[in-house]
């Protein structure tokens, strides 16, 4: 009992001093930025028709039925619409490249919410998760990896008091935990909801889903729904995976395998059903469970880069390796290395 209490205390202490899953949440930020950029660019040719003040949903009707907030509701001017839409593209690109820090990420959330509210008929479900996860990322150091170095954030952080900088560790880990809990809730609730359906209970749900015209992939979907074995295995396998995914991520040895299985599951959804935005949003959140594997992959890739490139990558990608006076977080101790999840 004493050893168990000691281990629990040590883990709690490490969560207040070591950054967890820095690479994972950085990948989450990159993918969520890319999903937003993909949405803007994918609708660019038809933007006036889909989102414009004189488009398929006129500005007057849009403002009348709007229940939340949207920056697109502030003006019916075509110039304002064009400015806002192109600003959204620029900010989404900046988030993808890792430029702008938390203010840029917060602006991306506001602009993405606004454009999603402007035309709800185009949404595929991934928007709901993005609404929740992006504010969690604001607590984390999601710009420490996969980001273009600017040095501005480091200079601003150094101006903060030391005690305030020390709070960045527990806040970061809290944000990581909230992302992990949120994605687990999505899986469990989705799985339990499916269990109540008759088609999911008798093993035929996949047959009906893949025959829906909106989601059918000609030439491929029939290969699945015409095979009874694939239908039954796919139906029951989906429910089992969704319900037991949280148990998999609770076991460190199973965590990366559960995340890889989830990524493969959502890649199949993107391929067969065309729900690319939804699939990439779910995959983005799964990356918090693959932070250790991503760290090892980066080290492997760095070892095969030219020596000058590898040195530059090491200087910008591993904050713990910096001298104490130059650490982005400004901690004074030695326990500042990012801890994989």
TrEMBL record:
Keyword Transmembrane attached: yes
Protein's membrane topology: Multi-pass membrane protein
InterPro entries named among the record's database cross-references: HTTM-like, Sporulation_signal_mat
Chain segments carrying region Disordered: 322-341
Location, primary (coarse class): membrane
Residue ranges of domain HTTM-like in the record: 14-294
Subcellular location: Endomembrane system
UniProt keyword list: Membrane, Transmembrane, Transmembrane helix
Transmembrane domains' residue ranges: 20-42, 88-109, 169-190, 229-251, 263-290
UniProt name for this protein: HTTM domain-containing protein
Entry keyword annotation includes DNA-binding: no
């Amino acid at each position: 009992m004493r050893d168990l209490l000691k281990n629990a205390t040590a883990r709690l202490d490490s969560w207040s001093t070591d950054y967890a899953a820095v690479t994972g949440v950085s990948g989450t930020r990159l993918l969520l930025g890319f999903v937003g950029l993909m949405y803007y660019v994918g609708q660019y040719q038809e933007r006036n028709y889909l989102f414009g003040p004189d488009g398929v949903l006129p500005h007057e009707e849009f403002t009348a039925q709007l229940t939340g907030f949207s920056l697109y509701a502030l003006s019916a001017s075509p110039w304002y619409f064009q400015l806002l839409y192109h600003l959204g593209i620029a900010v989404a690109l900046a988030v993808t490249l890792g430029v702008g820090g938390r203010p840029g990420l917060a602006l991306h959330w506001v602009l993405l919410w606004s454009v999603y509210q402007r035309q709800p008929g185009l949404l595929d479900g991934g928007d709901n998760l993005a609404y929740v996860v992006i504010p969690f990322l604001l607590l984390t150091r999601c710009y420490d990896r996969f980001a273009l170095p600017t040095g501005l954030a480091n200079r601003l952080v150094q101006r903060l008091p030391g005690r305030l900088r020390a709070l960045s560790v527990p806040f970061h880990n809290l944000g990581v935990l909230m992302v992990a809990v949120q994605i687990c809730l999505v899986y469990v609730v989705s799985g339990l909801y499916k269990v109540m359906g008759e088609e999911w209970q008798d093993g035929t749900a996949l047959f009906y889903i893949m025959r829906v015209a909106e989601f059918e992939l000609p030439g491929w979907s029939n290969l699945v729904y015409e095979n009874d074995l694939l239908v039954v295995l796919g139906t029951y396998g989906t429910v089992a995976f969704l319900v037991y995914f949280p148990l998999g991520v609770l076991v460190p040895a199973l965590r990366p395998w559960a995340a890889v299985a989830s990524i493969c599951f959502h890649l199949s959804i993107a391929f067969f059903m065309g729900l690319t935005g939804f699939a990439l949003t779910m995959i983005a959140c799964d990356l918090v469970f693959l932070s250790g594997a991503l760290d090892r992959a980066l080290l492997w890739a760095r070892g095969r880069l030219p020596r000058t490139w590898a040195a530059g990558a090491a200087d910008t990608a591993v904050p713990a390796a910096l001298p104490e006076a130059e650490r982005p977080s400004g901690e004074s101790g030695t326990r500042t290395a990012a801890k994989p999840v």
